[in-house]
Amino acid sequence: MPPPHLLADRAFPSRPLIQTLIRVGWRYTIRLRASDVVTLADGAVQGYALIAAATHGGFTAQSGQFGRQRDAGTASQVVVGRGLVVLPWHQRDAGSARHRARRLARKQHAVKQTRRAAPTEPWVLLLTTAARWWAALAAYGLRYHTEGTYRDAQGGWDGRHGWDRDERIAAAPAPARVEAVVGLWAVGTLLQSWLGDQLTAATTPAPVRAVSQEWTVHGRLSVWARGRLALTEPHGRLHEWVIATLHVAADRLRHERRAVPATGRDQPTTDREVRPPGPPLREVA
Q1: 118 and 128 share a domain?
Q2: Residue 92 covered by a domain
Q3: Residues 128 and 47 grouped into a single domain
Q4: Structural domain boundaries enclosing 47
Q5: Sign, CA torsion 121/124/125/129
Q6: Which terminal residue of the chain, N or C, has fewer Cβ atoms less than 10 Å from its own Cβ?
Q7: Coil, helix or strand for 128?
Q8: pLDDT, tens digit, for every residue of 131-163?
Q9: Residue 245's closest CA among 205, 209, 281?
Q10: ∠194-195-200 over CA atoms, to 5°?
């Protein structure tokens, strides 16, 4: 099995993080800030200088390390560049164009007011263990598929409907509590996303699917958002369907758990309480 490949945004790069990844043998592709310093073959340089020398529409890669000191045994690449803008189909209308124009105007105004350097967000600056720049971009591109999960774990799509995991972890009194919160979040995200996925499945009764069509006019709700709205549906129309669907999920989880060989600390114990199976499923009209 290949080692894990860590993907991280600009808030995460640090020397202790890189050293830990090297020590445990993980691969990584981490986006750097323009203010970060990397050490190349000809010495230390700041990200601003790399971006200033880069070409719009292409990418370059060269051997480098994070920070001003070299670490023995580190084989990483510094990738810098800016690709061509390709908009998704639902952002190619006039309304989306006006939104982008207003956002760009605000950024340019902020630059003039504070006399800061030009925004560097469109540029990509990566520290990666990938051998080629295109492999680094392909790996980092996978991070965008998980962005919604990070958002939902915090404030949600509108800042009010998330799980506030960041605040709860910050208030945790011990590492064990952090592990517990993260574990509950992982299981809860799995179950809620399962509900959202099943809500619009072809096998789901039409009256149940019709309820979800009341929540949006564009149909672009994530499975996590659909699951949350199913759990909080105020009129009780999905109550029985939610219970039945969660029982199906629990049965699948039990089946997967039995299919995994138990080794080491995962060996089943005889003193653990075994819950009886849930009630039989009922068809929801």
Answers
A1: no
A2: yes
A3: yes
A4: 5-82+123-144
A5: positive
A6: N
A7: strand
A8: 899 999 999 988 888 888 888 888 887 788 888
A9: 281
A10: 105
